[in-house]
Write a structure and sequence with these properties.
- The chain is α/β, with parallel strands linked by helices.
- The protein folds into 2 domains: 135 residues, Rossmann fold (3-Layer(aba) Sandwich); 192 residues, NAD(P)-binding Rossmann-like Domain (Rossmann fold, 3-Layer(aba) Sandwich), CATH 3.40.50.720.
- The chain is 33% helix and 16% strand.
- The chain is built from 11 helices and 14 strands.
- Helix 1 links the parallel strand 1 and strand 2.
- Helix 1 runs parallel beside helix 11 and helix 4 crosses helix 6.
- The protein is globular, with a radius of gyration of 21 Å.
- The chain binds 1,4-dihydronicotinamide adenine dinucleotide.
- 1,4-dihydronicotinamide adenine dinucleotide binds next to helix 4 and helix 6.
Length: 344
């Protein structure tokens, strides 16, 4: 099997070469992202492998179909960048449903601690032999309330970590996780109750029509003054303009963002020395109480290895049996995994 691998980074290659080599899948690495302009690079390949910021819209799907490409193998869990309705009947979409919920949940806590204990400031100060503590006062997490939106794999690991810090949890999900609500330290509540009661809000739900801009001006209005917003899920869960306004008005005490709505042309690339055109992102980054990482929450050795192994397994299983449990199916209740195998 030959696969065109888009948005390839140096850290992808060792694990994909290892598992691909072992299981007979050959990857041709392209640094460019998949989109309407680059889709013809897929000519002659059995499938394409893509990541979070590749574009798999209707035009790209139609061209892949014309080229005889049978499979889109996502190297991620989220699939908001794929037009699943349009893919149905044309191309099979496989994904990696989970690679390390710990990687993302631990990064979320790392961002939170960095922010509220001013570690990012201390690192720079002490390198300059500035040992002053002025402006470094943080706050205890113990006893604080964290609102967790999305209690799936990552959300639940994050809740465990927060419980270890002695925090109370207000949870919200479209479908409650059985056994999570203990009626005391972890409680499912409505979104409005979560907004009103949380000192910190962390987003761990997918980006869908329901969750688009779940943190917007109206939501922030309902939050406590000084709320800390954590987003390690998808950029468009947060209205970045509203967040910026919230920071300027001091309603938002701090924000930690691993994702950004307009990240696709920026994140994962080096733009140092360039003038950043995105005023909202530039202004957010300029704030002392905003920390931005460029979609790196997944980036651990364990996750990279799991991503490669699952992607290669998905491909081999699909081509050998014409079905794969990690195939996404638009028909199966709104782009859920197709447990029945053959989707079309
Ligand atoms: P998951 O599928 O295990 O959990 C997602 C949860 O969100 C489910 O419990 C689901 O019921 C819930 N949900 C769905 N619609 C909702 C709604 N309208 N309101 C509230 N909750 C809703 O997914 P997992 O593995 O926990 O990943 C969560 C998200 O993390 C992914 O969708 C992805 O966007 C993001 N992610 C980010 C990474 C990064 O590097 N920053 C890496 C991997 C995932």
């Amino acid at each position: 099997m030959k696969f065109a691998f888009f948005d390839a980074k140096p850290y992808d290659k060792p694990s994909f070469d290892k598992f691909g080599g072992e299981m007979g899948v050959k990857f041709k690495y392209f640094e460019t992202k998949l989109n309407e302009d680059t889709v013809d690079l897929a000519q002659g390949y059995d499938g394409v492998s893509v990541f979070v910021n590749d574009t798999v819209n209707a035009a790209v799907i139609d061209r892949l179909y014309e080229l005889g490409v049978k499979v889109v193998a996502l190297r991620c869990a989220g699939f908001n960048n794929v037009d699943m309705k349009h893919a149905y009947g044309k191309i099979h979409v496989l994904r990696v449903p989970a690679y390390s919920p710990y990687a993302v949940a631990e990064h979320t806590m790392a961002l939170l601690l960095t922010s509220i204990r001013r570690i990012h400031k201390a690192y720079i100060r002490t390198r300059d032999f500035n040992f002053s503590l002025a402006g470094m006062t943080g706050f205890d997490l113990h006893g604080k309330t964290v609102g967790v939106i999305g209690t799936g794999r990552i959300g639940r690991v994050f809740i465990d970590i927060c419980r270890g810090f002695g925090m109370k949890v207000l949870a919200y999900d479209k479908y409650d996780a059985p056994g999570l609500d203990n009626g005391d330290t972890v409680r499912y509540v409505t979104l409005d109750e979560l907004f009103a009661g949380s000192d910190i809000i962390s987003l761990h739900c997918p980006l869908t029509e329901d969750t688009y801009h779940v943190i917007d001006e109206v939501a922030l209005e309902k939050c406590k003054r000084g709320v800390v917003i954590l987003n390690t899920s998808r950029g468009a869960l947060v209205d970045a303009e509203a967040l910026l306004m919230g920071i300027k008005s001091r309603k938002v005490g701090a924000a930690c963002l691993d994702v950004y709505e307009e990240e696709s042309d920026l994140f994962f690339e080096d733009f140092s020395g360039h003038i950043l055109e995105d005023d909202t992102l530039a202004r957010l980054i300029s704030m002392p109480n905003v920390i931005v990482t460029s979609h790196q929450a997944f980036l651990t050795e364990e996750a990279l290895s799991n991503i490669a192994e699952t992607t290669v397994n998905n491909i081999v299983t699909f081509f050998n049996t014409n079905q794969c449990e990690n195939e996404l199916c638009y028909r199966m209740g709104g782009a859920e995994d197709c447990k029945n195998g053959k989707c079309f």
